[in-house]
Design brief:
The structure holds two protein chains of two kinds. Chain A is an alpha/beta fold. Chain A is built from 21 helices and 23 strands. Chain A has a seven-stranded mixed beta sheet with strand order 11-10-12-13-15-14-21, sandwiched between helices. A six-stranded mixed beta sheet of chain A has the order 3-4-2-5-6-7, with helices on both faces. Chain A has a five-stranded mixed beta sheet with strand order 18-20-19-22-23, with helices on both faces. The radius of gyration of chain A is 26 Å and the shape is globular. Chain A starts with 6 loop residues before the first strand and ends with a helix. The relative contact order of chain A is 0.09. Chain B is of the alpha/beta class. Chain B has a domain of about 200 residues: Rossmann fold. Chain B is built from eleven helices and 14 strands. The radius of gyration of chain B is 22 Å and the shape is globular. Classes of the chains: A alpha/beta, B alpha/beta. At the A-B interface, helix 1, strand 9, helix 10, helix 12 and helix 13 of A face strand 1, strand 2, helix 2, helix 4 and helix 10 of B.
């Protein structure tokens, strides 16, 4: 590559692309992460975009960011970034605080004019001194003018020419990290196959960005990040939302059921609906309903008719689906509800992450209404837990709520395509009863589920509904003792799920004074914090919950081993309170944050050290 | 497949029907069961979906598959059933409150999508199960427990709402006319797409005789008109009155007076794509007009579930990806050996 001297070897690094929401930063970040993953690095990404579709150009409100952490042993997108790309002054203003001391900041110097600085809220003409950024290594590249120059002879209008300036930044970052361009050039060729001039412009600007690296080589070091050795198999990048969609696809295929999604667009869950709408090739029936309620109701109707009925939403939508979830509890039909949590209450922070729907999922219904609740903990295991949710829903005839969050939904990781036998089969609870003796609510002794008979089956006509019913025949019953029996049975049926869920595992230093507890999307940050502390010889253990209701069988066995327990979550203590209810004999400390952002490894370590030091 | 011909009693479940004695629902239940037998339905191919309200108990009295759901959501649940398995005959039983108040949104969107459901709306202009509050079809000024000084709301007209939602089938019948009920139920069943049937139903306890003005035996012939596709719209005990168009408005004319002959009377065209006249017919109210009975509009249009099936079939026939593992290994994938 012609670069000799200043190449720095590192294990992992993180880079943040940021610019105006129209600058194409999400795409730039995605292309960079694909290239890195294909190169053999672990990756974890974190898109951070504004709620407004187009906030005023050049303002802080309109800054869109995409952070990629890549290298060996990557479990989070990284607290702080080593390298920041700021396409305008607002991006610098908004993101400099996310930088590691001594990191590199690449700016488009053309955009740092008086107007741009004013829009970003700078009071002087020198942002570096104004915001005390002197300790960073600045690469001030005239990206706008070099982009224009590169495409000058193509006859594009000014606006179209500048649309490719994100490729300049990407090219420069590829130079910085010694990455090949092939993946991206291939993408550009196929994306703009029908628009030759645009294709040429993007290819040229990408290359111009890369070559600009050679110009500044003398003053800037570049990095080399070695690939990780991975298990054999096929790999691809997957974000949490797509992983959910694909988990559904595999569950449908393995169960032999047709997949039916009833849903309504809502941030940050919409992508699941979009992905499945695209999957007509897999026979998916997607019903974009008139509202959240119809979304779940069509899914429940489809489930009654014999499909794998599923619905996807976020917090406000889950609130609207409440009554229909209760009906599914009563009707004892399989149903999977995915809640991609975002900041609440009400409309809250639609594009930001939070874990504050836990109690809504567990208890947000009228009556005694137990449902299974499962939480995914990494972008790619959204696939696994969606699959297991389907398995539990079908085999136990019960609604299951899967909790993910905005952080998992938009974050990507590399994912190994599973082998066909990596996941257990899903068995439909078909009836073995004779038609003339068929009892709608007769239960299997092992799981206490009722039989699932699809309409269209001769001899088994039956009626179900939301009214309390006789515990065997399913006929309407207003009898008090029968109601008690049914309430007990529905709870016992849920409790039986514990038989198929794995035991809770303890990671880190098992013989520790402090047990860190988490659930759902905070896994990567908690894991990294505990791992780093263990490396520093600090005794900390870590247990992370994916199965929330029911809790794993050995939960108490683990809790009783530790003098100090701290429950960390992105809410004000919902899981901690749930544990206090389920296991009141132990004491729980809490670490909580609700700022729309994931934990940082640093703040977690600080917190744990404080606890250890008593 | 067996060719068993089911009798209407085969559609009766073993449960005792528990509506109030004299309630119009009894007659509608019988009419539906008789229609299903005459349609050569098999009980196992029928799904009855209902919401909440007196009428929604219907599900339990049918020896078919049935789902008694939650208030207002029957259209959405029925939409899911039919989309999941288009082979099923799906009937939605609902009332003026269930369909047009709490379920109004689902109702209009289901009609708009043209999902092949038979939606039977029992319109008694009152909330019966909660014991007598006004409903969205109660007339302006109606006195009820929640409108002790009379309502201050104009009512919905189910026909107008259906046509406004681009409905392709609307019919009206009255509970006590079993023959008419069966006729329109069968027409609705044979129509592919969302079929809305408004049944004027009497609540004997909270709104008795609400439809009496037109249903009364002595006045029925003069105060209602039975519409039949392709036939002139003539009514009256003496069959001497008809509907004509006068300056874009419907008008009742007496045949033989003012030069009006039978030839001037409008001929009912239920299959006309233009719904302007259908809307005027559906909105006719006594005393200015006779109330229209029978099938007011019946137009063929593509159904939602058929288009869904066709789209899946067409995409699948062109796709190289046939199962999940192929999909997962397709596109932006790299292999570690």
């Amino acid at each position: 590559m012609g670069k000799s001297s200043k190449v720095i070897e590192v294990e992992k690094l993180s880079v943040r692309f940021s610019g105006d929401s129209g600058d194409g930063m999400q795409l730039t970040g995605t292309l960079f992460s694909h290239t890195s993953a294909a190169f053999g690095n672990d990756i974890s990404t974190f898109p951070d975009f504004p709620a407004d579709i187009r906030a005023p150009q050049g303002t802080i409100g309109g800054v869109s960011g995409f952070q990629v952490h890549f290298g060996k042993g990557v479990a989070t997108p990284g607290d702080k970034t080593d390298v920041l790309i700021a396409m305008n002054p607002a991006a610098l203003k908004a993101n400099a605080k996310h930088m590691k001391p001594g990191g590199t900041i690449i700016t488009d110097s053309d955009s740092f004019d008086k107007k741009g600085l004013e829009k970003a809220g700078y009071k002087t003409e020198n942002p570096i001194t104004e915001d005390k950024l002197e300790s960073f290594n600045f690469i001030e590249a005239p990206i706008t003018s070099l982009t224009k120059e590169a495409v000058q002879d193509l006859g594009l209008d000014n606006k179209s020419a500048l649309r490719s300036k994100n490729m300049f930044a990407l090219g420069l970052v590829y130079w910085l990290f010694n990455r090949p361009l092939e993946h991206t050039t291939e993408f550009i060729r196929s994306k703009f196959a029908a628009k030759e001039r645009v294709m040429t412009a993007n290819l040229r600007v990408l290359e111009a960005g890369y070559n600009y690296g050679n110009v500044i080589e003398a003053v800037t070091p570049s990095y080399h990040i070695s690939p990780t050795e991975s298990k054999k198999g096929f790999y691809r990048n997957l974000n949490g939302n797509k992983a959910v969609a694909w988990g559904f696809l595999m569950a449908a295929e393995k169960s032999g059921l047709e997949l039916f999604l009833g849903s309504y667009p809502i941030t940050p869950a919409t992508e699941i609906l979009q992905e499945l709408a695209e999957r007509k090739d897999m026979g998916v029936k997607v019903f974009q309903a008139e509202d959240e309620i119809a979304g779940i109701c069509t899914a429940l109707g489809a489930s009654f008719a014999g499909d794998l009925g599923v619905t996807t939403t976020s917090g406000p939508g889950l609130a609207l689906k409440t009554e229909a979830i209760g009906l599914a509890v009563m009707a004892e039909l399989p149903l999977v509800v995915v809640d991609v949590q975002r900041g609440g209450p009400s409309t809250g922070l639609p594009t930001k992450t939070e874990q504050a729907d836990l109690l809504q999922a567990l208890f947000g219904r009228n009556g005694e209404s137990p449902v299974a609740v499962i939480a995914a903990s990494t972008p790619v295991n959204c696939f696994d837990y969606t699959y297991y949710a389907c398995k539990i829903a079908v085999e136990h005839m019960i609604p299951v709520i899967v909790l993910t969050d905005g952080f998992l939904a938009n974050g990507t990781q590399q994912w190994r395509v599973p082998n066909e036998d990596d996941f257990p089969d899903i068995t439909i609870p078909k009836t073995k009863q004779k038609p003339e003796e068929f009892k709608t609510y007769l239960r299997s002794p092992e799981k206490l589920n009722r039989d699932w008979v699809f309409p269209g089956t001769p001899g088994y006509t039956h009626r179900i509904g939301g009214l309390e019913k006789d515990s065997v025949t399913g006929n309407i019953s207003h009898d008090g003792p029968n109601h008690q029996k049914m309430v007990n049975l529905r709870q016992e049926k849920l409790d039986k799920i514990v038989d198929i869920i794995p035991d809770l595992e303890v990671e880190g230093d098992k013989d520790a004074d402090l047990l860190v507890i988490g659930w759902g999307g905070t896994y990567g940050h908690l894991y990294s914090a505990v791992e780093e502390m263990n490396k520093e010889n600090k005794k900390v253990a870590f247990a992370h919950f994916n199965y929330i209701n029911p809790l794993p069988n050995n939960t108490a066995d683990i809790l009783k081993e530790y003098k100090n327990i701290v429950v960390c979550e992105l809410n004000m203590g919902q899981f901690a309170n749930y544990l206090r209810m389920k296991h009141p004999e132990y004491k729980y400390k809490q670490y909580n944050k609700v700022q729309g952002q994931p934990f940082t490894v640093k703040e977690l370590k600080d917190q744990f050290i404080k606890i250890l030091e008593g | 497949m067996s060719n068993t011909q089911y009798k209407f009693t085969d559609f009766k479940s073993e449960l005792n029907v528990r509506w109030c004695p004299g309630c119009g629902d009894h007659a509608i239940l019988n009419s539906v069961q008789k229609s299903m037998a005459e349609l050569n339905y098999k009980p196992e191919d029928v799904v009855v979906v209902s919401g909440i309200g007196c009428s929604s108990r219907f599900t339990y009295y049918m020896n078919t598959y049935g789902f008694h759901t939650i208030h207002g959501r029957a259209s959405a649940i029925a939409s899911g059933v039919k989309s999941a398995n288009p082979k099923l005959n799906v009937w939605q039983i609902t009332g003026d409150g269930d369909a047009l108040a709490i379920g109004g949104n689902h109702f209009i969107h289901t009609v708009r999508r043209n999902i092949d459901l038979n939606m039977i709306v029992f319109n008694n202009q009152i909330y019966g199960l909660t014991k007598g509050q006004y409903s969205p079809t109660s007339s302006h000024g109606f006195v009820s427990k929640t409108s002790p000084f009379g309502t201050i709301e104009p009512p919905f007209r189910p026909g107008e709402l259906t046509l406004g939602a681009r409905g392709n089938f609307f019919a009206r019948a009255i509970d006590r006319d079993l023959k008419l009920c069966q006729e329109v139920f069968k027409e609705a069943a044979n129509h592919k797409g969302s079929s809305v049937v408004e049944v004027l139903q009497n609540c004997v306890i909270y709104n008795d005789n609400t439809h009496n003005m037109i249903a009364d035996k002595n006045h029925k012939a003069d105060r209602t008109i039975k519409l039949e596709h392709g036939k002139p719209m003539i009514f009256g005990k003496e069959r001497d009155k008809g509907l004509i168009l006068d300056n874009m408005n419907l008008k009742v004319a007496k045949i033989g007076e003012n030069g009006v002959t039978e030839k001037d009377i409008l001929v009912h065209d239920a299959k006309s794509n233009n719904n302007a006249l259908h809307l005027m017919l559906a909105n006719m109210e006594y005393p200015e007009f006779p109330v229209a009975m029978g099938v007011i509009r019946s137009v063929d249009a593509p159904t939602y579930e058929k288009q869904m099936e066709d789209q899946i079939e067409s995409v699948q026939s062109q796709s190289k990806v046939k199962n999940f593992y192929q999909l997962a290994k397709d596109g932006d994938v790299w292999e570690v050996k």
